Amino acid sequence: MDIAMVGGGAAAVSLLDALAATEGDGAVGGTGTVTVFEPSPHLWRGRPYGPDLEAVLVNTPPALMSVRGRDVGHFAAWLGDRGSDHLDPLLGRPLVPRALYGDYLVHTAEKAVAALGEQGWTVRVVAARVTDAAVRGGTRLVLRTDDGQEHEADRMALCVGGGTPADVYGLGGAAGFTADPYPLADTLERIAAAADVTVIGSGLTAVDVVVGLAAHRYEGRITLLSRSGVLPYVWQRPVERRPTHVTVERVAELHRARGQLALDDLVGLLREELADAGEDFGELVALLGGTRTDDPVRRLREQIAAVDDPRIGRRVLQETAHTVGPYAWRLLREPDRAWIRRHLRTATSVASPMVPVNASVLMRLLDSGQLTLSSGAEGIEPVDGRFLVRDGGGRRTAHAVVSAVNPPAQAVPVAARDLVRAVTGAGLATFHPSGGVVPADPRVHLVGDLVGGGPFITSSVAGVAAQAARTARALRAA
Fold first, then answer.
1. Are 445 and 157 in contact (CB under 8 A)?
2. How high is the pLDDT of residue 72?
3. Distance, CA of 349 to CA of 204 (rounded, Å)
4. Whether pLDDT at 23 is above 70
5. Is the pLDDT of residue 441 over 60?
6. Which helix (H) or strand (E) segment is 198 a member of?
7. Would you say the pTM of this structure is higher than 0.85?
8. Distance in angstroms (rounded) separating the CA atoms of residues 183 and 177
9. Sheet holding 177-178: strands in order across?
10. Percentage of the chain with pLDDT > 70?
11. Right CATH number for 177-233+355-403 from 3.30.360.10, 3.40.50.150, 3.50.50.60, 3.40.50.720?
């Protein structure tokens, strides 16, 4: 069998690792070739995990960063004693620079390639972008790359990564504007030390930019500009207790028994989880209800102080949003999904929190007055070599603007648009009504955030690893 793997980032690494498994139901049978198409010079790292500042950290504890499905300790085991060099004292877990996590991806990919070679497979990398795909002779897939070459395959796996951030205010090409902050090492070199910087967004990417500026000994004013002014919640120190009610198994039981799944069903499971822990469900609801209305600086201070709070409510939500959420989302009634979308900012801020060490940096900058939060964003336009910024507080100017807008989940990356257009045009896949792409032909597989019909949050590494394991089993059975 000849497998074409389009994309060479974390999703591709996870799929290679699953294909190379020599034990259990992940092992791929037979022999053949695996061709990985990746034009980036940072093979296996993807956009987020290339060389960058040491201060740019992975935003998730190690247990949720394993690219090996069903082995949450895989990354931590690779990290070994080095983890003690990157310990977040508040979280009690190592939080490593993204570039170091990229080393883990490279190591895992190289081990998988070697294991596949020992099993008789040939793995090769083509440093070109796939722009077209079609069917030839009724059975073989033909992929065309941007260098004019054609490559045949029996199966194709799209591992193209997340979407491309939108240019919300049409500032592309303006001097002083950065459309994509990564790698931050390059972005910050272009910003004068005393310049006034406006960062568009207030999510995890915006937090990365602020922390990067602080590590760069930046002296100017920083403004986080967004429509909501909502910051991500803060990770709490992990506890040993695992959810026993909010699980895939319980969700499946409810769906089988009732023929549908409602949001109230999931709320009921959460109520049971908190009741077993002796906790008040109403307190959690009140906390979540104030996400968009409470003062964000006060909330940040309170959450840093609550890193050791033993209550499990937020912990359960944050864990199960990524482990149970993708499965439950596909079963939920559409009115309930629509309700969640209306509360998207609250949901994403809870499900994708910032790490305590970064929260502490933000708190220090907010207390000193160097950092401010601005809500009610109305517009930004270049004027006389600067930027005129309009928000709920009026008008002001900035020397530099950095976009930290995160693309929506299931968005098609710009670099993959030609290929996705070709695949859907050839009837090999279709667009999902709520975003993303779904296979329409058994020869096509998807791993990563492009998988259509997924939940409102960008796929986590844990979710991608689960997808990769399922895809490996399907490829083995082909």
1. yes
2. 86
3. 9
4. no
5. yes
6. strand 197-200
7. yes
8. 15
9. 177-178, 400-403, 197-200, 222-225, 371-374
10. 98
11. 3.50.50.60
